[in-house]
Specification:
heterodimer; A: alpha+beta; Alpha-Beta Plaits; five-stranded antiparallel β-sheet; 4 helices; elongated; B: Rossmann fold; Rossmann fold; six-stranded parallel β-sheet; 23 helices; 18 strands; globular
Chain lengths: ~220, ~575
């Protein structure tokens, strides 16, 4: 037993040549001198999906289990019966953004998905309930942000504001002085700029005429 | 009952004959008719309340139903059946616990991209959501582990839904699908015959690769000086073995496989370096470490293959062929992605290549590594019995194209390392999910998928075997000729190996010294059993077990101290594989 071999024969790990090269956490080969990790960026996806039960939970579940960071998600009908548009704001480093698009594209109810360009039209709606002690000042700031007063009473005032994310953030800051009691934000929804299609292959439909799917997905 | 069994085991020569197919009168008969239309010959399952209408419809069908002891067994059997046959396997279970018992098997199929259709009973539609008896949100539970699942709400469309689910399971990158069948859908009347089974419009994969991608890949391969082909399970799924071998041989490129890719290249071929990864061969891991061009086909770069991402094939430009675009650059960045069918992509790249890579020195180097890092375990002339010896003895005693199933753990690694596979669909194992207990039900599925003259062996571990041992009753009832070889080391051996290596030898909850006498247990089930303690007993026991026409169990009492090597520690570079414990 004493001379019995333990394990296998061959040069030990330290006796073997090892290449210098390395990859980063995304599996990309890197120059060790300029080693860096990709930065997160925020982007908007628009997807046309079959309007069937559970479609939203399939997308939300996929994002959760693959640890995709979804900032907001909105859903609504399109010009085509039986199709819905889902608009999603995500924040990830770049290879992750690519993964989100490809993994969502694989879901059976997803007809087509595309990432919006920077020039896309984006907007969000927010409802703000603030204290009613200073109605004139609340009204002035609401005007300043092209907002609308939906409900006003001696104790509270509720206003509606729309706009891009930055405008909404600024407005919310401006209203803080009145004491924000409640807030409800829809999250962004968006369409591509000009004649550009928001989602690849998307065609306007007429009632009861589903468009043909155009993407090749799993 | 015996009459029915006899009739259903007759070879089916009339499956295309409309008159032998189920007449559609209800949702349940539409389901069965859809299965018949799809060419399903065998299904695995367990009865229960909500699935009873489907079973009632199967009563008159030519589909052979194999009752399993546990739904998990049904899923694994269907999975393995599909792997061996190349068509989706089918399993059935009732609602609630029946469906949740399938979950491990569905997850297993999902991780290994095995085509499988699961049909589950569900409480009646009007009771869904009321926490009814044996109600579980089956589509909710299985959404993350299926390609897609369906809730069949209408008897008129349920046949088409089942057809679509079956087709989808085998389309593109295969995987499991599930149809949840509320009892009222199954029982309600309909005469709507299911139409042609086709995958949904939104799931049509790209088969022919993009020309520009092919050109770029061809150029990268031509200029490689140290190319390696990495064949994954996708080569098997795409039935691209012949094309893949032709490509390797014509261009004289060394081949490494993944575990699911075992058999895509004959392991005794000079070009084949066997499989890479945590317990892969030293030479495969050296080739991966030093290649300058890794041509990966149908693999998802699992962490057990890659080791640490940062040191995986660190010098290589990566050509990645896959039918699933989401696998491209998911784990390892693909410098040259080629999305498409594995066979078509390899053919297109071959046609686009103007010359083979010039790599005579590299091939020599790979052969040198084969000599430097031989798979030779300790000489088998001392007791105790070495598990590797048992695997080699079984391989030697069985025909070349024997189907081998396994559980998960040390025995699985030894089987994969020391059995020489020469064809795909012969190594049937749980790779991605690592499901202990897969081996026996998989052997049942494989046995029913294989031709009668083929041999099926299950190499199992003591702990794995205990997890699904109840399925032995099925093998006995169906008189299935399966030889089960337990490499019994009285431990969850892989855990024990890790405890010794990484937890200072604290063997918490790893010991199985209380496990039963498997030969007696086998006899109690009605199978044959042997116990083998020494080298001398090995040949006779194997010979007798193989000769016995029915399920046989050999309990090999092997060296409990034996470890699996080579071993790449989790997250370590593949090239730093340890050959013994002191190198970990």
């Amino acid at each position: 037993m004493s001379d019995q071999q333990k394990g296998l024969q061959g040069p030990a790990p330290d006796e073997r040549p090892h290449p210098e090269g390395r990859r980063n956490s995304q599996g990309i080969r890197i120059d060790p001198e300029v080693e860096s990790e990709p930065e997160r960026r925020r982007t908007v996806f628009s997807a046309i999906v079959e309007d069937e039960p559970g479609v939203l939970s399939r997308i939300a579940g996929l994002a959760a289990r693959r640890q995709f960071n979804i900032e907001s998600l909105t859903v609504g009908p399109t010009t085509v019966d039986g199709h819905s548009r889902i608009t999603m704001v995500v924040e990830e480093p770049d290879p992750g953004i690519d993964q989100i698009e490809k993994q969502i594209a694989k879901l059976k109810p997803v007809i087509s998905i595309g990432e919006l360009d920077d020039d896309a039209v984006r907007t969000e709606l927010v409802l703000l309930k603030v204290g009613g002690e200073e109605p004139d000042k609340v009204h002035a700031i609401t005007e300043m942000y092209d907002g609308k007063t939906l409900d006003a009473g001696p104790e509270t005032i509720t206003v509606q504001l729309t706009g891009d994310e930055r405008k909404i953030d600024d407005a919310v800051d401006a209203f803080r002085r009145f004491g924000i009691i409640e807030i409800a934000r829809t999250g962004q929804t968006a369409l591509a700029h000009g004649a550009k299609k928001t989602v690849p292959g998307e065609e306007p439909g007429t009632s009861g005429e589903p468009t043909k799917p155009t993407t090749n997905t799993q | 009952m015996s009459e029915r069994t006899a009739a259903s085991t007759e070879p089916d020569t009339s499956s295309d004959d409309e008159s032998t197919k189920t007449e559609v009168t209800s949702g349940a008969t539409a389901v069965v008719r859809a299965l018949e239309n799809a060419g399903v010959e065998t299904a695995f399952g367990v009865q229960g309340g909500a699935i009873m209408p489907i079973y009632d419809a199967l009563y008159h069908s030519d589909i052979r139903h194999v009752t399993m002891a546990h739904e998990q067994g049904a899923a694994h059997a269907a999975d393995a059946y599909g792997v061996v046959r190349g068509d989706p396997g089918v399993c059935l279970a009732t609602s609630g616990p029946g469906a949740t018992n399938l979950v491990t098997g569905i997850a297993d199929a999902n991780m290994d991209s095995d085509a499988m259709l699961a049909l589950t009973g569900q409480v009646p539609s009007d009771m869904v959501g009321s926490d009814a008896f044996q109600e579980t949100d089956t589509t909710g539970v299985t959404a993350p582990i299926t390609k897609h699942n369906y809730f069949a709400s209408s008897p008129d469309t349920v046949g088409d839904t089942v057809g679509e689910a079956f087709a989808l399971a085998g389309t593109g990158r295969p995987g499991p699908t599930l149809v949840d069948l509320p009892k009222d859908t199954s029982l309600s009347e309909t005469d709507r015959e299911p139409g042609e089974a086709k995958p949904p419009e939104t799931c049509r994969p790209r088969l022919d690769p993009d020309e520009a991608e092919v050109e770029a890949a061809a150029r990268a391969i031509e200029r490689a000086e140290k190319p390696v082909l990495l064949f994954g399970g996708g080569v098997v799924k795409a039935n691209a073995t012949a094309v893949a071998r032709q490509f390797a041989t014509e261009h004289q490129i060394p081949v490494v496989t993944t575990m699911p890719g075992i058999g895509t290249m004959p392991e005794d071929d000079e070009l084949c370096l066997s499989w890479a990864g945590m317990h892969g061969t030293g030479y495969a891991n050296m080739a991966i470490t030093h290649t300058d061009c890794l041509i990966a086909v149908g693999t998802r770069f699992d962490d057990r293959l890659t080791g640490g991402i940062d040191t995986f094939a660190p010098e290589a430009e990566v050509v990645h062929i896959d039918i699933d675009p989401a696998e491209i650059s998911k784990n390892i960045h693909a410098d040259y992605p080629v999305v498409g069918d594995a066979g078509r992509a390899l053919e297109a790249i071959d046609a686009a290549m103007e010359h083979s890579p010039e790599a005579p020195e590299w091939r020599e180097q790979c052969l040198t590594w084969k000599d430097e890092y031989p798979m030779d375990y300790a000489a088998p002339d001392n007791e105790p019995l070495k598990p590797q010896f048992v695997v080699e003895a079984l391989d030697e005693a069985t025909p070349d194209e024997t189907i081998v199933t396994s559980g998960v753990g040390q025995h699985q690694m030894w089987a994969a390392q020391y059995w020489t596979f020469r064809e795909p669909r012969r190594w049937v194992s749980s790779h991605g999910l690592g499901t202990m207990g897969y081996g026996l039900p998989a052997a049942i599925g494989a046995r029913l998928a294989a031709d009668d003259d083929e041999t099926v062996v299950c190499v199992d571990g003591d702990a794995s075997f205990l997890m699904t041992i109840q399925e032995l009753s099925v093998a006995v009832r169906e008189n299935l000729d399966i030889t089960i070889a337990i490499l019994n080391n009285q431990y969850i051996g892989m855990v024990r190996q890790w405890q010794d290596a990484f937890f200072e030898g604290r063997r918490m909850a790893a010991g199985y010294e209380w496990c039963p006498q498997f030969d007696k247990l086998a006899e109690a089930f009605g199978a044959r059993g042997w116990t083998v303690d020494s080298y001398e007993e090995v040949p006779d026991a194997i010979e007798e077990a193989l000769a016995y026409d029915g399920p046989s169990v050999i309990d090999f009492h092997v060296d409990p101290a034996e470890n699996v090597y080579p071993m790449v520690s989790s997250g370590a570079p593949n090239g730093k594989f340890a050959l013994s414990e002191d190198q970990l």
